[in-house]
Automatic annotation (TrEMBL):
<comment type="similarity">
    <text>Belongs to the alternative oxidase family.</text>
</comment>
<keyword id="KW-0679">Respiratory chain</keyword>
<keyword id="KW-0479">Metal-binding</keyword>
<dbReference type="Pfam" id="PF01786">
    <property type="entry name" value="AOX"/>
</dbReference>
<protein>
    <recommendedName>
        <fullName>Ubiquinol oxidase</fullName>
        <ecNumber>1.10.3.11</ecNumber>
    </recommendedName>
</protein>
<dbReference type="GO" id="GO:0005743">
    <property type="term" value="C:mitochondrial inner membrane"/>
</dbReference>
<dbReference type="GO" id="GO:0046872">
    <property type="term" value="F:metal ion binding"/>
</dbReference>
<dbReference type="GO" id="GO:0098803">
    <property type="term" value="C:respiratory chain complex"/>
</dbReference>
<keyword id="KW-0560">Oxidoreductase</keyword>
<dbReference type="GO" id="GO:0010230">
    <property type="term" value="P:alternative respiration"/>
</dbReference>
<keyword id="KW-0812">Transmembrane</keyword>
<keyword id="KW-0472">Membrane</keyword>
<dbReference type="InterPro" id="IPR038659">
    <property type="entry name" value="AOX_sf"/>
</dbReference>
<keyword id="KW-0813">Transport</keyword>
<dbReference type="GO" id="GO:0106292">
    <property type="term" value="F:superoxide-generating NADPH oxidase activity"/>
</dbReference>
<dbReference type="InterPro" id="IPR002680">
    <property type="entry name" value="AOX"/>
</dbReference>
<dbReference type="GO" id="GO:0009916">
    <property type="term" value="F:alternative oxidase activity"/>
</dbReference>
Length: 143
């Protein structure tokens, strides 16, 4: 999910340099979003204790999505941003369902990983539920 912010920020940066125009803060906003989404991935990769094959899958999907989103953004930045907005809405729904499963006990509410506690300045005794709450809030902010 970090790909759209990175691609959009990169392409706006290049456009700004070509036209000698200020982006109105959009470059920083998109790159900050990419960083935030990267932290979501890093956090959940740590929670799941991902293996090499899962990391390889992330690497492969990232390569495909980067190129696809790059081409989509070149063709229609407005449409590309709309697609991301839709994906963020779906992410909010997914995290809400995740919270329901945590509350039912279907998914174990393990302690929050240190990376999440540090990044979101969470209390030391935070749990996975606390992490999902802040991640869902991030997704709501991104749409």
């Amino acid at each position: 999910a970090a790909v759209p912010g990175m691609v959009g920020g990169m392409l706006l940066h290049c456009k700004s340099l070509r036209r000698f125009e200020h982006s109105g803060g959009w470059i920083k906003t998109l790159l900050d979003e990419a960083e935030n989404e990267r932290m979501h991935l890093m956090t959940f990769m740590e929670v799941t204790q991902s293996r090499w094959n899962e990391r390889a899958l992330v690497f492969t999907v990232q390569g495909v999505c980067f190129n696809a989103y790059f081409l989509a953004y070149l063709a229609s930045p407005k449409l590309a941003h709309r697609v991301v907005g839709y994906l963020e809405e779906e992410a909010i729904y997914s995290y809400t369902e995740f919270l329901k499963e945590l509350d039912k006990g279907t998914i174990e509410n393990v302690p929050a990983p240190a990376i999440a506690i540090d990044y979101w300045c969470l209390p030391a005794d935070s749990t996975l539920r606390d992490v999902v709450m802040v991640v869902r809030a991030d997704e709501a902010h991104h749409r």
